[in-house]
Amino acid sequence: MQIPTWTKPGLFGAGAGAIALAIVGFTWGGWVTGGTAQKMAESASVAAVASAMTPYCLAQSKSDPRSVELLAELKAAQGYNRRGVIEKAGWATPLGAEKPNTELARACDIELAAG
């Protein structure tokens, strides 16, 4: 069997093209690995739950009998301490949960600061 002379350059060209395609796809094409896709999906789901539960947190802040003093404490707090005030007040603890949801506390803090 006679192998054509163009086979070796053709195979090298195909290999180089495949490598170039993978590099371009992963850097500029938006391709991701399965692990990265899983992390992105988890992050999006946490953000969606926090967004959906924000009205609950705001309602908790309005119906709390200590809301005036807690809101004053919240205004005096800075940075991540604001989230801690919301978590300690129980406004970011969904029904049936034992501990507060950190993402919900962040979302609630943003809404309370805006309103």
Low-confidence stretches: none
What sort of overall outline do the alpha carbons produce when their principal axes are compared?
A: rod-shaped
**How far apart are the termini?**
80 Å
Task: Please tell me how large the radius of gyration is.
Answer: 26 Å
Number of helices: 5
In round numbers, the mean pLDDT is 91
The main sheet comes to: none
- How does the helix and strand content classify structurally? mainly alpha
- Give the H and E element order: HHHHH
Q: Number of DSSP strands?
A: 0
Primary descriptors:
115 residues, mainly alpha, 73% helix
Description:
The chain crosses the membrane at residues 12-32. Keywords: Membrane, Transmembrane, Transmembrane helix. With 115 residues, this protein is mainly α. It has a domain at 50-115. It is 73% helix and 0% strand. It has five helices and no strands. It has helices spanning 7-27, 34-63, 67-76, 80-89, 102-114. Helix 2 (34-63) packs across helix 5 (102-114), helix 3 (67-76) runs antiparallel to helix 4 and helix 4 (80-89) crosses helix 5 (102-114). The longest helix is centred in the middle third of the chain and has 30 residues, at 34-63. The chain is rod-shaped, with a radius of gyration of 26 Å. The termini are far apart. The relative contact order is 0.11.
